[in-house]
Amino acid sequence: MREKSRLKIFACLLTIGGLFAGAEARTVHIAVPTLSMVVIAFTAAKEKGYYRDEGLDVDLVVMRDTLGISALIGGNVDFASMSGAGLTAILGGAPLRFAFSSFYRPMFWIYAKPEIQDIKALKGRKIGVTGLGSGPDNLLRETLKRNGLEGGRDAVILALGLPSTVAAALRTGTVDAGTISPPFNFAVKEAGFRELVSFLKEDFVELQGSILVHERLLQSDPALVEKFARGTVKGLRYARENKAGTIPILLRYMKIKEDLAGQYYDQVRPIMTTDGTVSADMQKKYLDQALKVLSPKESPSAEKIFNYFFGAQDQCRARRRGVETGEVRELRLSIDKLEL
User: Fold this and answer.
1) Beta bridge partners of 185
2) Domain containing residue 156
3) Is the separation of the CB atoms in 210 and 135 below 8 Å?
4) Average pLDDT for 57-70
5) What whole-number distance in Å separates Cα of residue 143 and Cα of residue 12?
6) Cα 97 to Cα 320: distance, rounded to the nearest angstrom
7) Which among 98, 315, 54 is positioned nearest to 211, based on CA atoms?
8) Which of 91-95, 97-101, 230-234, 295-299 is least confident?
9) Are 166 and 180 in contact (CB under 8 A)?
10) CA 340, CA 13: separation in Å to the nearest integer?
11) Which residues make beta-bridge pairs with 151?
12) Which residue has the higher pLDDT, 104 or 8?
């Protein structure tokens, strides 16, 4: 009897394996600004096989913010994850859409030389950001504005590329201050630089770890967008609910110490979205913040910028398929119990 059960399970697995083997995985390229916790939904989905389950072979390509968006517009990548630069491009007329977001608060700090006491003291100073028009740049300019300064006039803002370059420029004295992202905030703090602003504590909405997609792909291949979004949502859920499993993923991609990875996770876990979507109120606030800084001639409505349909669709499908998921879980338990 037990032998028959084993044979049935083998037959089932062979059938499933044959179906997957017959379909070659489609390579998908996504431009990302970093391989940090910001993109943990993507790295977790890749490491745990969620993209592979969707028939996708996902390649994470690290680029600076504006270059990644240019690559998306030019069709050189399928998706991009540079939220701030993406919103800037959208307000400039680029036909891009937000299809998913991992975080809703900024994971940035403004650090400065020890002798600089506050934001007002940045007048006449050089400040580093990853890119002009990026999320950190927009947040910096709004913060300067709230303190009576205008970025570009009262303080020089330099686009330096990757987050690691901004941190290095601060440490070498190339800039007097910089918008710093994890894990570099730990390093510059330890080196004695002064924290002027923690955007985690400020009332800003900043969408990070997003999926930006071109309208042409939404129209030509919505199935691909759905598959990619579905795999990414699964990665997000895993990262939210499994700290022990997420830390090793951070360590592999970031090459940092385990204690720092744990601190980093704990620091930003509270600002993760639950399902890759944000409310209409948050969408509006994010858009309004950008409009204050960028002042475009025309502004599209939030409904034309955010398209979270694919993530929401996955949520509904998951609820409908709860019994089916339970059946799969029972099959796995049966396999584990057999001494094959």
Assistant:
1) none
2) 109-201
3) no
4) 94
5) 59
6) 27
7) 98
8) 295-299
9) yes
10) 13
11) 155
12) 104
